[in-house]
Write a structure and sequence with these properties.
Order of helices and strands: HHEEEE
Number of domains: 1
Number of strands: 4
Structural class: alpha+beta
Amino acid sequence: MKKEGGFTLIEVMVTVAIVGILASIAYPSYLSQIRKSRRAEAQSTLMSIAGKQQQMMLDTRSYADSVATLNMTVASSVSTNYSISLTVTTATVPTFSALATPIGGQAADSCGALSVNQAGVKSPSNCW
């Protein structure tokens, strides 16, 4: 008798179960790394905004109240995951704060909103 080659149904089901278990472990880790990567892009954008704000302060003695005033565009990879806003005060000593608020799928990020101000203070400090 000639032996037929191939896999049995049990062997295929065991393989499918193992792949399913590995995927259920790997997928949440993958999503976490994606959020971390998007957070790093937002942090880079906030630091660019802070640098441009400082240059504007040197040039005009005031801070810009919008990203457009800084002649800067926010990358689409950042704007689809974060809402960028600027808050400026015009007191005796002017101040600014740049805030990146997560939106969409990025809202599940454990760090939440990221910010930097004119003194270079970044919050939340454990996420920078």
